[in-house]
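To make the argument concrete, we let one protein speak, a sequence paired with a row of structure tokens, as a model reads it:
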Amino acid sequence: MRPLKYRDYLVALLKNSPDIQRVEVLEGGPYPYALAATVAGRERRWQVVGQLADGAKHDNATPPVEGQPPAFTAAPVSAAPDAWLAGVIGAAEPVDTERIDVWSTREGKTSQGLTVFFRNGERAFVRLV
């Protein structure tokens, strides 16, 4: 999924999350395709970066592929921000998503974010900025 489309998807998803006090699109800053979400009184800023499927071109949209929603682990707002966000995405049961990789659970973690692997071969990298 393209970064702009996925950022807009996340904004809509977060607006419906009971843990969110505020969510907004961030335009014109240092991070393209960014959003800010206030969770439990604390603002978190996320940037979405995309990777096309192998052989795909920016001219054409990659066709969606659907399947079973990805496995996920729900996390409370007090958990690592990327683990919480992965739980929110997983709870929405996105049928175009194969899996979600939470960076804070990796060995030797150096940053927080997640990689969303789509069934059509595209990826979205959502990093905490």
Remarks:
- The mean pLDDT is 93.
- The radius of gyration is 14 Å.
- The helical segments are 3-15, 81-91.
